[in-house]
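Re-running DUF4232 domain-containing protein to confirm reproducibility after the cluster update. Everything else is unchanged from the original entry.
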Amino acid sequence: MMSRGWRSLAAGLGFAATLPLVGACDSGGTGGGGSVSEPSSGSPGPIYVEVNQSRDQYGKQAIMLQLTNTTDAPLTVTAARLRSTLFDGDISWEPLEGSLELPPRQPKSLPAALPGAACEASGTASPELNARITYAATGKEPVDGITEASDPFNVLARNAGELCLAAEAAAVASMVLDPALEVAADGRTAVVRLVVTPATPGGSAKSLTIESIDGTTLLAETPSDPWPRNVTIAPGDATRVLALHMRPARCDPHAVAEDKVGTLLPLRVTVGERQGLVKIAASNELRGRIYDFVTVACATAG
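Result of re-run:
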């Protein structure tokens, strides 16, 4: 029979280091790639918690809570709540069917939406992070266990920073992609338009600079018509429409079928003292048109 007391989290850390992680995003706009630092040990507990993010969650204010049962017996989990000083509320997961069985030594990844970011804390060097798990051993009553959690890919810091940057950018101007797509006669290139509508004067003295626009896994700029750079917008300015001439970035058979972030346009911006990426998502209508364009353009090129 398993003891109710927490076991050492260090045992969980050693095992978890050998487990495959949920697909992490790379540092160029699809996640926090690069070398992985060892999670720091925290309060002992039978469930080890790690933060991660899948590619299809990127840009959607959602993450994964990866739970690993470090004991030798199954545990039943009924709630998982993560608390970070980078966010204004708990990051919570609750099972749709009342509970989740967590087998021994086997990680399970649970999706959780992010609350609003606490922007005054987004620059914290070592933000506090801990988790509360409601769980039960077989034949036992549920208990709450509190333990520190690890975020080895800095998923929370990256998402909080991007949310705060996006909020400051939105205070200067709204930025949307026009749902229309202008395809060239030969079908090999197209134009999508980024519509920038500045806010009315008075709310903020800051300006917004679009330093550059990154390509995506599906779309790249055409060499003859490079994308705009160093475009500055201030409240009260006239609406700007930036024409982006594009071509397919890849034409392998899986480009469209497996796309997750190919229609999420990354803008490198500066607002006041903040600098980073703001992602502009295509509407469902425009997304479909982009997929059709890439399919036809790749077939033509082939």
